[in-house]
Amino acid sequence: MIVHPPVHWFRLLFAWRGSILPAIFPRLMLVLSCALVVVIFHRFTQGFGLQLSVGAFSLIGLALAIFLGFRNSSSYERYWEARKLWGALLINARSLQRQAMSMTSLPADHAELHEFSQLLQAFAYALNHQLRCTDPRSDLYRLLPYPLAKELSVVRYIPSMVLVQLAQYLSVWYRTGKIDVILFQSMDANLNHLSDIQGGCERIMTTPIPYAYSVLIHRTIYMYCILLPLGLVDSCGVLTPLITVFIAYTFMALENIASSLELPFGFEPNDLALNAICRTIERSLLEMRGETTLPPACLPQKNYILD
Amino acid sequence: MIVHPPVHWFRLLFAWRGSILPAIFPRLMLVLSCALVVVIFHRFTQGFGLQLSVGAFSLIGLALAIFLGFRNSSSYERYWEARKLWGALLINARSLQRQAMSMTSLPADHAELHEFSQLLQAFAYALNHQLRCTDPRSDLYRLLPYPLAKELSVVRYIPSMVLVQLAQYLSVWYRTGKIDVILFQSMDANLNHLSDIQGGCERIMTTPIPYAYSVLIHRTIYMYCILLPLGLVDSCGVLTPLITVFIAYTFMALENIASSLELPFGFEPNDLALNAICRTIERSLLEMRGETTLPPACLPQKNYILD
Amino acid sequence: MIVHPPVHWFRLLFAWRGSILPAIFPRLMLVLSCALVVVIFHRFTQGFGLQLSVGAFSLIGLALAIFLGFRNSSSYERYWEARKLWGALLINARSLQRQAMSMTSLPADHAELHEFSQLLQAFAYALNHQLRCTDPRSDLYRLLPYPLAKELSVVRYIPSMVLVQLAQYLSVWYRTGKIDVILFQSMDANLNHLSDIQGGCERIMTTPIPYAYSVLIHRTIYMYCILLPLGLVDSCGVLTPLITVFIAYTFMALENIASSLELPFGFEPNDLALNAICRTIERSLLEMRGETTLPPACLPQKNYILD
Amino acid sequence: MIVHPPVHWFRLLFAWRGSILPAIFPRLMLVLSCALVVVIFHRFTQGFGLQLSVGAFSLIGLALAIFLGFRNSSSYERYWEARKLWGALLINARSLQRQAMSMTSLPADHAELHEFSQLLQAFAYALNHQLRCTDPRSDLYRLLPYPLAKELSVVRYIPSMVLVQLAQYLSVWYRTGKIDVILFQSMDANLNHLSDIQGGCERIMTTPIPYAYSVLIHRTIYMYCILLPLGLVDSCGVLTPLITVFIAYTFMALENIASSLELPFGFEPNDLALNAICRTIERSLLEMRGETTLPPACLPQKNYILD
Amino acid sequence: MIVHPPVHWFRLLFAWRGSILPAIFPRLMLVLSCALVVVIFHRFTQGFGLQLSVGAFSLIGLALAIFLGFRNSSSYERYWEARKLWGALLINARSLQRQAMSMTSLPADHAELHEFSQLLQAFAYALNHQLRCTDPRSDLYRLLPYPLAKELSVVRYIPSMVLVQLAQYLSVWYRTGKIDVILFQSMDANLNHLSDIQGGCERIMTTPIPYAYSVLIHRTIYMYCILLPLGLVDSCGVLTPLITVFIAYTFMALENIASSLELPFGFEPNDLALNAICRTIERSLLEMRGETTLPPACLPQKNYILD
């Protein structure tokens, strides 16, 4: 996630890093070449009837508007739903921590409360690693006792197993009379919410926008941009390449942003800052437990990117 | 569901399999023929006043934009709602499994916990078969004891009856003191969620988008594409067939994708991978029960299709 | 609801029954007449300056796009919400039936369980009759004991009174120790859901889209269609009537579908098949109770219409 | 709320009352005057280069489409949310009434049940008066015992205080053993819903659409309508005033409807019929209590307006 | 938040304060200068082929419509979600206050009820200060006892710690038998809601719309406005600067409003009136406790701005 400080409107016009421009630059050069060819050979092609009117492009533009509008809004919705799920993870972790402190009859400094809290943090880190397909072991060993970390590091769905562990704590507290059955149920409901969050993230990760859409949208954009100079050259003359590249830039950049937001759990500049959220969860839970020295918050790296 | 690995933007332009192109190829050829006829006889038809302006098509395009935008978004919403319901099925199955393990006083390896877990898997498979109108018997006999499987295989709404069976387990545990009434209620709430999921899927399956829409949209698209060459031939000349086919491709492909996503429970390439989700549920529940040898995950078949 | 089997794309173009065409045919003929008059007298009117450009219509089209897009999506949302409410009715009836069987200590064949189940079915039928303003008595007398049916048949809000009756059963079971208070509450929560469903349907029935919208949209469409030939005749010549009728067809048909879906509880072809859903509820509840002979499912009547 | 019976499509074209036309008639006359001036002096102005093309207006139309589409949908959403909240009020009042009758051990004709039911009705009426800034005293004195009505009539947030009173009944019943704690909680959850409804209505009432939007949209519409004749006069000639007024009518009427629906709690023709809903709540609760003589339902007044 | 009283439609056209005009005035002057240069040198530039057609701009306008429509609706949704969260805060604070009064066995004037109520108010103020990055100390010291205020004023996530304090009250009441476990759970559920509200606001504050969008939209708007005079000068002549500035005004103002609403917790005129909502919460809770002298409601300051 890019966390740029507010930029003056004039400098924003010339932003390079963090904008989508570098990624699509080669393709824009290709479109520029086509446009230059059309402008240069304009005089010769007229004999062959290879002209197109702007009107034809406004008809194609209709389909393009539907495609890009849909592509954009559905990708952004996925991004924002993912963000909401991670926001809910922070909320639920805090709620469970608060409930563990106020609902059980354990003293505030009891070891089991500490272990429970560590498991909550481990859930967040494990989900992060599952979604990004990275190695969870360093975080598991850091947060959990060695045997448990070892046991968890070989399973397939680690967050599910962490929830089973959390439920075991509740179950033991319930059977030994440390928590009333009603309050057990109430905390278990929050475990259900954590399960919802895990399932929601897995759904976003494993189900991209249907493949047929991607092909159709991609093809329409490129076909449109390649043919565009033929339609503009009559009315725009030598400015044809400029306008063509400008239009191509807007469409390609939009498609590029959308396909980047579609799968928001990666390491690209516009993806969600899962590491920073995990750290926030860790810091917030520690503070609620009364710790005064907290690990530092994640800070944006070069180019204002927070990952 | 097609699970293509990321394809280079250039190769994506020429994708054939998995794109919607093969399905609509004959109709595009029909449109192409019309366009060729118009171009060839252009000189002769002018005498009869059979010309149309591009402007007229932008007026029709207005209705088309509303129709296709609506068709597309309502179909995709149905698809995505169906996906959410199946994601929720995975979540709820896990939650019920976790609750059965932590809330009852049964030892972890008790036979009834095993049977309960098998019933949860059977629910997923039975719903899959109901929605796809396939034969559920092989999965029922594989997962459940013979008499129960036999009894279930003749009823009309199998998932409902599986829920009744699951409720019977909870009821017996409750009456024999193996689970507190509060926790019974809490697990029963998750059975309600499973019932919601079943009902939601049935709703999507039995209620397509109103028939009058399909007729109206279909008719507008074809009428538009057939008339289009008359409107373009003046300004586009010999390029008329190319532009006509391109525009027809975008509209027909969009309608085709939309009507494919409208009923997302079939076996078409863009439908949901229900079999794979059922297998994921099976694997996840087995792992939570401590099984170490899991059945293999479903892998995409030829053309990257996961069903 | 029309439940057409999939139709070949070519035959779909010429569908008459079930399409909206018959309803708007007279008005299309009126528009056609206007267009013919304009084409025939075109030569004479030019002297009076009665020409319009296509451009002016694209400006009006802007407002039309907003109106029709809004009209269409808000009507469809009402239709789909109504469908969801009736889907939820099926789900909740099943859940209450399952809970009555597993949560009470009554034997499975107890008369009160039977009566409770009949009341659930009566709720669905009574709501159906209330929404369609039809006579509920035949269904009430069929499903309920005579005195109760007689008592209910004279009240104003029958479904509310059925809920009071259902709550009485729960109350009696609770006071006689046949159900724990927790489980009473849990079943009562599902009664609340039934109340939500009733209220939601009543809201859709009694609150149409604001009247000022209907007037505004209606007026804009007709004004647009009547003036359209003046704008097309210059560029489309003798094809003007064809294009005018085609455009008028798309707009009027869309408005007609939308106003039909706006109030989805009637008997029109595109309305919801409430009778069929009531029958499904009846069949599903009977099957859950162990009945093996079920009343037949509703089948589509002539023209594939299910009501 | 206007509850027009279905009107024949032809007569709908000439509706005057209940349409938005009277409200914007003077402004349309102003636009008409401008258009007439432009047409009359057209010959003279050409020398000064004061011509505009239709194309320029389609560019401005782009912004207008975004503004009006947004304005319309956000206002309608507010209207529909308000309607949902009042629908939920009816639902919750019924549920609480049903619960009071089935969950407490009080006999059906106990005075406290009567008072509880009266308080529920008073909640609806008090909220109605708060939202419409009218005097609640007549309804309070009608429904409640004199001392309570007097006490409530001087507070600032009457519905909140009615909820406190309702909670007091529950609290007393709970402490005197007339209701189990579980069922107390269950009824209290419905009080929370009533609180949600109150808060939701207050939010809609106190937070209009941001002021900057209103200014921007308003200004764009009027600027557009005043300049429009300059763009149309070349291509539409003497029909310019007709087309200008028609376009201005669609835009101004839409803005007018939207700003009327934005604050749906007033007494304008398109506002919600809060009085009628309050009466429905009163009738429904009385019927559930077994009353056979109900106060008459609200009927639409002149011009089919229900308030 | 600007709470303008209804303004006459004619005066609204000339509103300056509270409109977005002052903020973008310099940029509009820049656009005006470009347009004037183009008009003045129009005769000379024609020789160089530097003309553009309006048609080209309608193609670019397509992308602009998608961008601005998306930008506007996503920003407004964030604004409205934030408003809903603060509305829910008022609702939940009232509910908790009501529950504390009716569910505990404490007398109505007990000191702990007073402290609990003060903590609820402190939660609202602390969240306000966290979101606006202002100093919470004056409000904390005003509402809470000195030691607690001092302890809270140094932590990082103050609202979380206030929730821990609120939970401590519930926990103590529960352990000393002043509240039943069921009712404890019920109030704790409302604490969870407060946690949801906090988390939702934090999410909106820390996650702006992806940076790449801002760059892309900003760039497209400015490029469009700078090039626009070249496209209009042929058809609009001396009116080119007027039309250009008018179009630029609509686009820039819309972008400006959207980026203002995107982060709705600041002190700009269109931001939410958090101070006023906090005061409403304070007043409402005090009234429910029976206080008769309430602190004054926040009134709009100069220019009708409520902050």
From TrEMBL, chains A, B, C, D, E:
Keywords: Cell membrane, Ion transport, Membrane, Transmembrane, Transmembrane helix, Transport. It is a multi-pass membrane protein. It is found in: Cell membrane. The chain crosses the membrane at residues 20-42, 48-70, 221-254. Its main location: membrane. It comes from the Bacteria. PANTHER family: UPF0187 PROTEIN YNEE, VOLTAGE-DEPENDENT ANION CHANNEL-FORMING PROTEIN YNEE. Belongs to the anion channel-forming bestrophin (TC 1.A.46) family. This is Bestrophin family protein. It comes from Iodobacter arcticus.
